[in-house]
Amino acid sequence: MNDKNIQNEFISTISHEIRTPLTSINGFSKTMLENWDELDVAQKKKFLKIINEQAQRLINMVENVLNVAKMEGSTGNFGTPVLKEVNLEIVVKKALELIKHNFPVHNFVVHPPKLPLISLCDADFLQQILVNLLENACKYSQPTSKIEILFSVKSNATGDFNLITVKDAGCGIKKESLGKVFDKFYRVDDALTSPTQGSGLGLYIAQTLAKKMGGKIEAESNIENGNCKETRFTAYLPVFEIEKHIKGHKSSGGGYV
Ligand code: ADP
Question: From the CA of 199, how far away is ligand 1's center (Å)?
Answer without folding.
Answer: 9
